[in-house]
């Protein structure tokens, strides 16, 4: 179990503030093997291009070095052409690799971080003692085993592929340059395809190990949590916000308590089934939209349900709809327009069943952006 500088065990999961701080310091989730896989995929994508243009490109480059006589001007011109051809090829290959590496980091770590702290000089990086500690640490041992496994798998796979193609390679020795090039490109294509399969497995293992290792490294002790809470709650802005939220919660609780008597006029009560309760009033023909006459959570929700049952108000259990109404509406106001369809289905069911009509209980469809947990956070 990891320990901090005070000797306390780091048993707690890192907080969001801890994760954000690590990101600011340049510590983001990364997986080297996913970058290897991404680079291989780019090379894999260039194989068809090489099949089409490779032989003619090599022939053209070979032509640059055929001279009938030594001419310094011609020599310089051809070397210039070769240089720009090299730059062009490097750009064609390099730019997609860079783009894919950035996209890979975005997919793995959720961000592309260019934190200045991440590039800052650290003396520990050139300290030979620290270097030896890193080499002989558990992480260093895992990296060594991973490298040995990768070399063994890829080397063995390459040997198998080469051996399977050896007979065809020997039989093609008398073929033309273009035919030989196409054969080698096909063999390379097959080899890359096989390597990608192995690298995908290695990358997946490395990703989950890197994720687990990073979370373990960022774990916190109980004292770390206490210190962070002091830093967070100690600021005047945070204290002011907490007081404001407490006042709003207290005011809302009083409003909800005072609204319980209005349950007498309710048409239906939507529940969670016990943690939230929302009483709706709707009179067909007299009202265009249902209105919330009372709502509450916890003990107030229980009182609303008890009051409704005593007044023969139908109680309908729909956790998602109850929370959606609670967190998007206020007492005395119409329901949110995005919930018209869901509420209409429930009220139609209640009105018909109250009239003795046998109906199947409706499936309530609450929009995804209005689906909340008990704390009002989106699911």
Topology:
Elements lengths: L15 H9 L7 H32 L8 H38 L6 H4 L8 H8 L2 H34 L5 H41 L4 H12 L2 H23 L9 E4 L4 E6 L9 E7 L1 H12 L3 E4 L1 H10 L11 H15 L25
Parallel strand pairs: 1-4
Antiparallel strand pairs: 1-2, 2-3
Helix pairs in contact: 2-3, 2-7, 6-7
Portion in strands: 5-15%
Envelope shape: elongated
- Main sheet specs: 4 strands, mixed
Helix content: 55-70%
Number of strands: 4
Q: Return residue spans where pLDDT drops below 50 for at least 5 consecutive residues.
A: none
Give the neighbour order of strands across the main sheet. 3-2-1-4
Number of domains: 2
Global Rg: 34 Å
**Structural class computed from helices and strand pairing:** mainly alpha
Helix and strand run: HHHHHHHHHEEEHEHH
Average pLDDT rating? 78
End-to-end CA span? 33 Å
* Number of H/I helices: 12
Q: What does the model show?
A:
By secondary structure, the chain is mainly alpha-helical. It has 2 domains: 28-217, no CATH class; 258-370, 3-Layer(aba) Sandwich (name from scop). The chain is built from 12 helices and 4 strands. The chain has helices at 16-24, 32-63, 72-109, 116-119, 128-135, 138-171, 177-217, 222-233, 236-258, 299-310, 319-328, 340-354, and strands at 268-271, 276-281, 291-297, 314-317. Strands 3-2-1-4 form a 4-stranded mixed sheet, sandwiched between helices. A hairpin with a 4-residue loop joins strand 1 (268-271) and strand 2 (276-281). The longest helix is centred in the middle third of the chain and has 41 residues, at 177-217. The radius of gyration is 34 Å and the shape is elongated. It starts with 15 loop residues before the first helix and ends in a 25-residue tail after the last helix. The model has no long low-confidence stretch (mean pLDDT 78).
């Amino acid at each position: 179990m990891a320990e901090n500088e005070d000797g306390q065990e780091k048993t707690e999961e890192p907080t969001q503030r801890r994760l954000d701080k690590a990101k600011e310091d340049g510590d983001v989730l990364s997986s080297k093997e996913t970058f290897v896989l991404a680079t291989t995929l780019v090379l894999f994508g260039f194989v068809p291009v090489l099949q089409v243009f490779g032989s003619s490109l090599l022939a053209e480059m070979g032509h640059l070095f055929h001279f009938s006589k030594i001419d310094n001007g011609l020599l310089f011109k051809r070397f210039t052409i070769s240089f720009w051809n090299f730059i062009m090829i490097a750009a064609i290959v390099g730019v997609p690799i860079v783009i894919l590496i950035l996209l890979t980091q975005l997919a793995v770590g959720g961000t592309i971080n260019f934190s200045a702290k991440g590039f800052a000089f650290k003396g520990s990086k050139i300290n030979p003692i620290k270097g030896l500690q890193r080499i002989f640490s558990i992480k260093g041992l895992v990296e060594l085993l991973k490298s040995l496994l990768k070399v063994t798998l890829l080397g063995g796979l390459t040997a198998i592929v080469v051996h399977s193609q050896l007979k065809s390679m020997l039989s093609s020795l008398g073929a033309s340059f273009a035919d030989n090039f196409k054969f080698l490109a096909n063999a390379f294509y097959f080899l890359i395809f096989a390597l990608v399969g192995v690298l995908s497995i290695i990358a997946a293992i490395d990703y989950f190990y890197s994720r687990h290792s990073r979370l373990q490294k960022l774990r916190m002790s109980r004292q770390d949590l206490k210190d962070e809470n002091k830093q967070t709650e100690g600021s005047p802005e945070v204290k002011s916000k907490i007081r404001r939220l407490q006042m709003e919660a207290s005011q809302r609780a009083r409003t909800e308590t005072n609204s319980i008597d209005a349950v007498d006029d309710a048409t239906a009560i939507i529940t969670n089934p016990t943690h939230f309760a929302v009483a709706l009033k709707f009179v067909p023909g007299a009202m265009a939209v249902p209105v919330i006459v009372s709502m509450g959570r916890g003990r107030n929700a229980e009182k609303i349900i008890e009051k409704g049952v005593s007044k023969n108000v139908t109680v309908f259990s729909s956790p998602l709809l109850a929370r959606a109404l609670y967190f998007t509406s206020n007492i005395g106001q119409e329901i949110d327009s995005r919930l018209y369809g869901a509420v209409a289905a429930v009220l139609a069911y209640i009105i018909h069943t109250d009239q003795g009509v046998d109906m199947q209980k409706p499936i309530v469809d609450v929009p995804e952006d209005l689906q909340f947990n008990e704390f009002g956070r989106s699911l």
